[in-house]
Write a structure and sequence with these properties.
Blueprint (H helix, E strand, L loop, with lengths): L14 H8 L4 E3 L2 E3 L6 E5 L6 E6 L3 H16 L2 H4 L2 H17 L1 H12 L3 H22 L20 E9 L2 E5 L5 H15 L2 E5 L6 H13 L6 E3 L4 H10 L5 E5 L2 H11 L5 E5 L5 E4 L5 H13 L11 E5 L3 H14 L18 H16 L3 E4 L3 E2 L5 E2 L2 E4 L6 H4 L6 E7 L2 H9 L6 E5 L3 H10 L4 E4 L18 E2 L12 E9 L1
Parallel strand pairs: 6-7, 6-9, 7-8, 9-10, 11-12, 11-18, 12-17, 16-17, 18-19
Antiparallel strand pairs: 1-2, 3-4, 5-21, 10-20, 13-16, 14-15
Helix pairs in contact: 2-9, 4-6, 4-7, 4-8, 5-6, 6-7, 11-12
Bound molecules: 1,4-dihydronicotinamide adenine dinucleotide and magnesium ion (MG).
The site of magnesium ion has 5 residues, from strand 3.
Length: 504
């Protein structure tokens, strides 16, 4: 059984953070902190207890309208259109410095709001966000076009100078999820600002704290009013108003595939550009010639990192038959040792799921797996009496057509299946509507590369998993989304190409 973390010894909250959550949090519109036009607020919940931790302004259509107006003005003829790329880069770098200086406070915010272990937020979420901003700060001065030799056969003898410029796409709406609240804000804001866009960011209602605090740092860094607007609120209302707004030029979304499709429809009104980073059901494949101990550790963290609330979680485990039992038992043993508890207890290795909804959803999948004949060799149920904890779970005796193998669970649940032949493996691994990530564990490099080529996924990790870098593009094939975030590829999402042709 996973050990209980009770009685818990939570760390004392940073004094800045205590002050920050002691009064209702506001919306950032046109450089000012304002209450929602309706005056409404909503509760932000601590997922380890179910208690209310803060009151958050409930932004809606009217607030989105005001934010879009501000972003439009800052983009069309305001300060952001006049600032040099170098100055843009400096501001983004300054934001990274401020964030880094406040690492401890942000780590605690993420832990409190999302439930993740504070040590993980300190080592991963915050430094990755800092690094992303720095990487994107560098791009601000390097977004270039081409000069293009053209021939134009129907104007014989004429000469032209033709070139392209990459211009910012304009006013951008960004809707982000709750699994990595700060990091997702960074993935979205970094490239948009580097490219010269203005932004309306809508954080997830489950985890609004870090985006609002980041807004304070954005103001402190000196971004002009209206460049970044932050509207907290719910999906269907604030998010929907943003996705459908006729003066927004582009919408960027990370979240469920279901909502991705709703966003796409809402965006059709003015044909705004759309990029989507959606769900996954990623295959993690272990061959018998792998370093088995390393693969067991890798497969354990591939599914249990962030409590399985990762779009790229290695949630379908395919193990070559001769080592199937050894690997599955190894992962189960690791799972048993994982210490569950509140994120703010430094001993905690796995916190609660983010919300009551997510807890209910994941428990529903555990029930459905059981009904369809899957066997939980470890876990398989909720943990404790308060908060939204689910035990790390390894399912075997699963079949390809079961819901637990086909649908994204977004919790600490892996479905393990043995395989014999490569052909069958490849079609099983690709037998999903998703195509976000995949893992391969083998010492045979030609096998690794030839399998990597056959997997329909935006990221393939070989002998590692969950390796992210600001320079490495990330995104999905199939219903895992449109476009790539991070790396230089992301700049395509935030720029338009203009071709200029001059007769000389
Ligand atoms: P969701 O897709 O509903 O929420 C993500 C964001 O979209 C939030 O900011 C939310 O307010 C917003 N949103 C919701 N409905 C909207 C609408 N009609 N128009 C505009 N914005 C809207 O995700 P949810 O319900 O929190 O989680 C459900 C499932 O989604 C999870 O179990 C998981 O499978 C998947 N998911 C995937 C994520 C990823 O990183 N790809 C992140 C979060 C959830
Ligand atoms: Mg919360």
């Amino acid at each position: 059984m996973p050990k209980t973390a009770e009685p818990t010894a939570k760390i004392k909250l940073d004094s800045n953070l205590q002050k920050f959550i002691s009064k209702p949090l506001k919306l950032l519109i046109n450089g000012k902190w304002v209450a929602a036009a309706s005056g409404k607020t909503f509760d932000d919940i601590d997922p380890s207890t179910g208690d209310v931790i803060a009151q958050i302004a409930e932004g809606d259509r009217e607030d989105i309208n005001q934010a879009v107006k501000a972003a439009r003005a800052a983009f069309d003829n305001g300060p952001w259109s006049k600032i040099t790329p170098s100055e843009r880069g400096k501001l983004i770098w300054k934001l990274a410095d401020l964030l880094e200086k406040n690492t401890e406070e942000f780590a605690q915010i993420e832990s409190l709001d999302n439930g993740k272990p504070v040590g993980v937020a300190r080592a991963a979420d915050v430094p990755l966000a800092v690094d992303l901003f720095r990487y994107m700060a560098g791009w601000a001065t390097k977004i270039e076009g081409n000069t293009i030799p053209i021939s134009v056969p129907y104007t014989p003898g004429a000469k032209y100078l033709a070139y392209t410029v990459r211009e910012p796409v304009g006013v951008v709406g960004q809707v982000i999820p709750w699994n990595f609240p700060l990091l997702m804000a960074a993935w979205k804001l970094g490239p948009a600002l580097a490219a010269g866009c203005t932004v309306i960011l809508k954080p997830a209602e489950q985890t609004p704290l870090s985006a609002v605090r980041l807004g304070e740092l954005i103001m402190e860094a000196g971004f002009p009013p209206g460049v970044v607007n932050i509207v907290t609120g719910f999906g269907e209302t604030a998010g929907g108003a943003l996705a459908g707004h006729p003066d927004v030029d582009k919408i960027a979304f990370t979240g469920s595939t279901e909502v991705g499709k709703i966003i796409l429809k809402a965006a059709a009104g003015n044909l705004k550009k759309v990029s989507l980073e959606l769900g996954g059901k990623s295959p993690n494949i272990i061959y018998k010639d792998a370093d088995v101990e390393t693969a067991i550790q890798g497969a354990t963290s591939a599914i249990f990192f962030n409590h399985g609330q990762c779009c790229c979680a290695g949630s379908r485990l395919y193990v070559e038959e001769p080592i199937f039992d050894e690997v599955v038992q190894g992962i189960a043993k690791n799972a048993e040792k994982i210490k569950l508890g509140p994120g703010l207890d430094p001993k905690t290795e796995m916190g609660p799921l983010v919300s009551h909804d997510q807890f209910t959803r994941v428990c529903g999948y555990l029930e459905s797996g059981k009904k369809e004949g899957a066997k939980a060799i470890v876990g398989g149920e909720k943990f404790g009496t308060k908060g939204y904890f689910v035990k790390p779970t390894v399912l075997k005796d699963v079949k390809q057509d079961m819901k637990v193998v086909q649908e994204e669970i977004f919790g600490p649940v892996v479905a393990a299946m043995p395989f014999k032949k490569d052909d069958a493996l490849i079609s099983q691994a690709n037998d999903t509507t998703y195509g976000l990530a995949a893992g391969i564990w083998t010492k045979d490099i030609s096998k690794a590369h030839s399998l990597a080529a056959k997997l329909r996924a935006g990221t393939v990790w070989v002998n590692c998993y969950n390796i992210f870098d600001a320079a490495l593009p990330f995104g999905g094939y199939k219903e895992s989304g449109w476009g790539r975030e991070m790396g230089h590829d992301v700049l395509e999402l935030y720029t338009e190409v203009k071709a200029v042709c001059v007769r000389i």
